[in-house]
């Protein structure tokens, strides 16, 4: 890996997207694992063709795109189907992530992934940044943003890696429980630090 990679993650409602957007505004390339995960099952893709070959054409919507609700329902009910799907998609996603990380230009590159630790994508990173807020703020923000009941948000949070475990695994934690201005100010300091570390990383590499 030629670039210095910052892994960016955070629980639902923590503000990872705001941080990612702010870094993009500073000219940092963002490799988004969620976007890649959608690309590998896009209409007409080898990933989607493999899914329909395995589970049948009823996995498709009338327009030929993936019926995500139907697939989700299947993998929740069938552990073998879930394992098969992971074995199909994870290598595809990882390959695309690596390609984009290597092609990125700039002082450093960000790998943004809500399941950074869960899917061991932190192994591709030189440093990890967790955007963190207390759980009650996660619940309030997500319920207001997505117009969903708080109980639904709590279930999503419970299904994710615990906040304390993420805190243990992260190299740096950005507390995002204050105003957006406070967050941007703290992020600017972190960004300058990351640029400095990445520069040292590139100059200290042996020349071939």
UniProtKB/TrEMBL annotation:
Gene3D superfamilies: P-loop containing nucleotide triphosphate hydrolases. SUPFAM superfamilies: P-loop containing nucleoside triphosphate hydrolases. It is found in: Cytoplasm. One of its GO terms (biological process) is coenzyme A biosynthetic process. It comes from Pseudoalteromonas amylolytica. The keyword Heme does not apply. ATP binds at residues 13-18. Its EC number is 2.7.1.24. NCBIfam families: dephospho-CoA kinase. Pfam families: CoaE. GO terms for cellular component: cytoplasm. Keywords: ATP-binding, Coenzyme A biosynthesis, Cytoplasm, Kinase, Nucleotide-binding, Transferase. This is Dephospho-CoA kinase.
């Amino acid at each position: 890996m030629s670039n210095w990679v910052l892994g960016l993650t955070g629980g639902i409602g923590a503000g990872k997207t705001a941080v990612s957007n702010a870094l993009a505004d500073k000219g940092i390339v963002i490799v988004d694992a969620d976007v890649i995960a959608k690309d590998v099952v896009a209409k007409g893709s080898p990933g989607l063709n493999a899914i329909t070959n395995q589970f049948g054409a009823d996995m498709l919507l009338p327009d030929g795109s993936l019926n995500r609700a139907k697939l989700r329902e299947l993998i929740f009910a069938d552990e073998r189907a879930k394992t098969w799907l992971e074995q199909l998609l994870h290598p595809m996603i990882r390959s695309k992530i690596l390609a984009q990380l290597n092609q990125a230009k700039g002082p450093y590159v960000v790998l943004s992934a809500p399941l950074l630790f869960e899917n061991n994508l932190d192994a591709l990173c030189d440093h990890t940044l967790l955007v963190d807020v207390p759980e009650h703020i996660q619940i309030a923000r997500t319920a207001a943003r997505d117009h969903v009941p708080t109980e639904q948000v709590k279930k999503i949070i419970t299904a994710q890696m615990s906040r304390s475990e993420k805190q243990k695994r992260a190299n740096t934690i950005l507390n995002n429980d204050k105003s957006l201005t406070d967050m941007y100010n703290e992020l600017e300091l972190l960004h300058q630090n990351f640029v400095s570390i990445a520069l040292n990383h590139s100059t200290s590499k042996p020349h071939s």
